[in-house]
Amino acid sequence: MNRRVPVGSAWAAWALLLVGPLADALAAEQGLTRSPFGKTAEGTAVDLYTLSNSQGMEVAITNYGGIVVSLTAPDRHGAFADIVLGYETLDEYLAGSPYFGAIVGRYGNRIARGKFTLDGKEFTLARNDGENHLHGGLRGFDKVVWKARGILGDKGPGLVLEYLSRDGEEGYPGNLAVTVTYILTDENELRIHYRATTDKPTPVNLTNHSYFNLAGQGRGDILGHVLRIDADRFTPVDARLIPTGELRSVGNTPLDFRQATPIGARVDADDEQLRFGGGYDHNWVLNKPAGELGPAARVEEPKSGRVMEVLTTEPGLQFYCGNFLDGSNVGKGGKAYEHRYGFCLETQHFPDSPNKAHFPSCILRPGAEYSSTTIYRFSTR
Ligand code: GLA
Q1: Contact between residue 358 and residue 245 where contact means Cβ atoms under 8 Å apart
Q2: Which of 163, 231, 286, 328 has its CA 20 to 30 A from that of 20?
Q3: How close is the Cα of 320 to the center of ligand 1, in Å?
């Protein structure tokens, strides 16, 4: 049964500004609520928006960093669990988070030595990963307050987040106007649409950094999850996790996930790439045509039966298996997130693309629109 009244033919066309108790009550009826989530150090109030669908799934997202704070999905018996790592309060996110659930930008992943040359001009970015630039720098899109509004569309309730990244922010050229839209559909999909425009040429690479554990957050490591990645090649890295530039076949390596394989089966194999990453922390070159929405990965957790499929328009996928988690982040329900308690599947352009002319270009120019879509689809078996 769908309790939602269809409010329009195109979800994007229907924006409902959440003002006043009447609007709030109407929105709640249609799967969208808002509550205060706290204040930043500068005193800016931020909210937590909860989207729910007709199947009982719920996703809670804050406009601080566009962070997915919680996401519930049913197991094969219909029992719901929260399947993403995160914190209960804003203060804990402010105190430090390894990008739990966040929108990452202006450039997700690494840029070697924080430098690149564009149209003959050299740019220097903030360095926050040894000598490299990582995930947008010291204050990336995961640490800013986004302007938020709820929408009710024919695919489901959504949240539109907007942020203007100023010319020179973290060293990037151009004023970049960014819009990220989250939609929770009745087909148990979390859809993320990213859009951006600029007034100067700039690299752009937006992604979401949710850490998943399909058994339920805090319920052990993710090594038993069975993963397929739809990629014949990956981009091998050096010891600093910067791609060497090679597109290497996954054949005869522990990075071959063309057949569904438990994450833990080879994660500690004697392999140079795994030593560099401390496990899996690599970019796969997706087989589907770049720019077209197509399959990237599928993960199954055998005990609960929960399945997650990832579809994207992006050319690459960073699979990171929580190698840096060490129990020091204590999350929701007082759970300490130990080594490999969560995994990320970050859809993206390849790391260090601004310095690799043969990688798909991440450069956005004035007059063009950056547009990217990723779908996390949940089911059971
Ligand atoms: C990404 C990187 C990892 C690590 C995590 C955050 O996935 O590739 O190396 O920095 O983010 O801890």
Answers
A1: yes
A2: 163
A3: 7
> What values do phi and psi take at 131, rounded to 5?
-90, -5
Kindly state the helix (H) or strand (E) to which residue 372 belongs, with its residue range.
strand 370-380
Is residue 99 within 8 Å of 93, Cβ to Cβ? no
Q: Are 318 and 283 in contact (CB under 8 A)?
A: yes
Which among 133, 225, 346, 349 is annotated as catalytic? 346
Kindly report, residue by residue over 242-253, the tens digit of the pLDDT.
999 999 999 999
Pocket around ligand 1 at a 6 A CB cut-off = 98-99, 109, 134, 241, 281, 318, 320, 324, 344, 346
Query: Which tokens sit at 132?
Result: 């490299």
Pairing of strands 115-118, 231-235: unpaired
Q: Give me the half-sphere count of Cα atoms (radius 13 Å) on the Cβ side of residue 215.
A: 15
The type of residue at 200 is K
**d(CA 152, ligand 1 centre) in Å:** 33
3-class DSSP state of 150:
strand
Nearest Cα residue to 308 out of 81, 62, 2, 12: 81
Name 91's Cβ contacts closer than 8 Å, sequence gap at least 6. 38
The amino acid that residue 103 corresponds to is I
pLDDT in tens, 12-30: 334 445 556 767 776 777 8
Told to judge if 282 belongs to the known catalytic residues of this protein, a careful annotator would answer no
Q: Residue 378 in contact with residue 212, Cβ under 8 Å?
A: no
Per-residue model confidence (pLDDT) at position 153: 80
Letter for the amino acid at 70?
A: S
Supply the pTM of this predicted model. 0.94
CA-closest residue to ligand 1 atom 5: 98
Residue 42 a catalytic site member: no
- Amino acid 252 reads N
Condensed to tens digits (0 to 9), the pLDDT of residues 85-129 reads 999 999 999 999 999 999 999 999 999 999 999 999 999 999 999
Distances (CA, A) of 298 to 175, 291, 335: 36, 19, 26
Cα gap 11→218, rounded to integer Å: 34
Two structure tokens written together for 229: 């990645």
